[in-house]
Amino acid sequence: MGDVIHNLPVVSDILAHHPESEIDWVAEESFAAIPALHPGVGTVLPVALRRWRKAPFARHTREEIRAFVRRLQEKTYDIVLDSQGLLKSALIARLAHGSRAGLNRRSAREPLAALFYDYTVAVEKNRHAVERNRLLAARVLGYTPDTPADYGIAAPDAALPWLAEGAYAVFLHATSRDDKLWDEAHWVELGARFNAQGLHCVLPWGNQAERARSLRLAEQIPHSVVPPRLTIDEAAALLAHSRVAVGVDTGLVHLAAALDVPTVALYCTTEPGLTGVHTPMGTSAVNLGGIGNPPDVAAVIAATEQVMAA
């Protein structure tokens, strides 16, 4: 999800410099709703690589792959741009009709991906992922990014009948790896602080283990809410109207920052320098922690006060 969100400013950049452009986007099916939030994206082409890998030789998988390729090849594009720089994304770019462009072998995350492009450009690896993506598109299409990153998205109107009235904070406690989790006792302490400020806490989840954690936390944080499982549109609507979002290293924390929600991202076993939350002026989102350096509750409270004030 983070890779998808980190490319949203590219759409805004392209349209600012080439307003006549028509932009389609290939995205993993579970994240396809994210590029659809940008009014500059025409067609979103969902691809199911994660699901297909589980049954690569099944009949339904082969049929779905053929259907995806047919849809991908319905148009001939002036530029087919692969910003991910992986073999899987490069292969999809190669299947599309048009001039394929991407990172050169010294810049791509997987150097062999560069073999699949018709031409390549260099982008420095020491830049944040958002800026790398912007520079890649700019160098391919012949312009210079001259404004702060603009994610260009707004949350859709989505009904959330389970949401209590009043101001709230969103706790994004779930992530893909257990070593990225923030201690549950810390969430409880932070929740108590928000309760004292008149905020109730909403605890989204994505699978049964995460739901169980949400329920455990809700038992200890008064006035907290455990929602039903949310779609991306519903999650975006929830985040967009929150007073603040606090989350571990997970895609939804990037979505919160992209929606310009006051956001504090917590890193326990990863470094945020090149892939942390990224906002144009750096005031509405803060990255805390790093490898072996999880933030304490006091630091998180100070950061939430900072971003809410901003």
Layout of strands and helices, then pairs:
Blueprint: H1 2-5, H2 8-17, E1 23-28, E2 41-47, H3 49-54, H4 59-72, E3 76-82, H5 87-95, E4 97-103, E5 119-121, H6 129-141, E6 168-172, H7 184-196, E7 200-202, H8 208-220, H9 232-240, E8 244-248, H10 251-258, E9 263-267, E10 285-289, H11 297-309
Parallel strand pairs: 1-2, 3-4, 4-5, 6-7, 6-8, 8-9, 9-10
Helix pairs in contact: 2-6
Describe it.
The chain has 310 residues and is an alpha/beta fold. It has eleven helices and ten strands. It has helices at 2-5, 8-17, 49-54, 59-72, 87-95, 129-141, 184-196, 208-220, 232-240, 251-258, 297-309, and strands spanning 23-28, 41-47, 76-82, 97-103, 119-121, 168-172, 200-202, 244-248, 263-267, 285-289. α2 packs parallel to α6 (129-141). It is globular and about 60 Å long. The model has no long low-confidence stretch (mean pLDDT 96).
CATH class of the largest domain: Alpha Beta
Judging from the principal axes of the Cα atoms, what is the shape?
globular
The tally of structural domains comes to: 2
Q: What structural class do the secondary elements suggest?
A: alpha/beta
Order of helices and strands: HHEEHHEHEEHEHEHHEHEEH
Q: What's the name of the CATH homologous superfamily of the largest domain?
A: Glycogen Phosphorylase B
Characterize the biggest β-sheet.
5 strands, parallel
Rg result: 20 Å
State the total count of DSSP E strands. 10
Side by side, the strands of the main sheet go: 7-6-8-9-10
**Low-pLDDT windows of residues:** none
